[in-house]
């Protein structure tokens, strides 16, 4: 078990679902309700100092419950260390808290996950499509999205 995982597990036992390490990169799987507490902790704790949110990704495990996973990739410049945090997200209520309160860059990443997978980010300041146009129906990276679905036509924007 890596240093970050050990510190996080010690502080947040009630939120930890699982953890592992691969190639020196640590992964912690937590309950969605613990995201804001854990995120603030890993950013401000002097031994962790994960000051960069590198990416947020969505994953669709069609046929499994919880169906979705939101994956956060963090980096500590001072420690030259990476941390991945995963949140299982239910298909019936695909919503997690926004991290824009701690990392302004989460704005675009969260909008992309919303646009492609339909996972909402509670408290996001401007949750709207970022890759698809406003009239687009559905979320194209969901595994059950019909690849041949016809979309409404849009006209020129004046």
Could you describe the 3D structure shown?
Strand 4 (68-76) and strand 5 form a beta hairpin. The chain is built from three helices and seven strands. The strands form two sheets. The chain has a five-stranded mixed beta sheet, with helices on one face. The protein has helices at residues 3-11, 35-44, 106-117, and strands at 16-22, 25-30, 52-60, 68-76, 81-89, 95-97, 120-122. The radius of gyration is 17 Å and the shape is globular. 20% of the residues lie in helices and 29% in strands. With 158 residues, the chain is an alpha/beta fold.
Question: What is the number of beta strands?
Answer: 7
Across the major sheet, the strand order is 1-2-5-4-3
Number of helices: 3
The ordered H/E elements are HEEHEEEEHE
Mean pLDDT: 94
Indicate the percent of residues in helices: 10-25%
Characterize the largest beta sheet: strand count, sense, and whether it forms a barrel: 5 strands, mixed
User: Strand portion, in percent?
Assistant: 25-35%
N-to-C CA distance: 56 Å
Radius of gyration based on Cα positions: 17 Å
What global shape is seen?
globular
Low-pLDDT segments, ≥5 res: none
Structural class: alpha/beta
């Amino acid at each position: 078990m890596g240093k970050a995982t050990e510190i996080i597990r010690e502080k947040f036992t009630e939120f930890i679902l699982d953890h592992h390490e691969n190639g020196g990169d640590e992964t912690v799987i937590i309950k969605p309700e613990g995201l804001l507490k854990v995120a603030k902790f890993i950013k401000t704790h002097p031994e962790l100092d994960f000051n960069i949110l590198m990416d947020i990704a969505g994953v669709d495990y069609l046929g499994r419950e919880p169906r979705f996973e939101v994956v956060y990739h963090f980096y500590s410049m001072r420690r030259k260390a990476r941390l991945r945090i995963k949140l299982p997200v239910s298909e019936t209520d695909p919503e997690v808290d926004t991290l824009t309160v701690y990392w302004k860059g989460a704005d675009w990443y969260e909008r992309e996950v919303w646009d492609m997978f339909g996972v909402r980010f509670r408290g996001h300041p401007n949750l709207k499509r970022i890759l698809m146009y406003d009239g687009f129906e559905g979320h194209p990276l969901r595994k059950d999205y019909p690849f041949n679905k016809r979309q409404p036509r849009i006209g020129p924007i004046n």
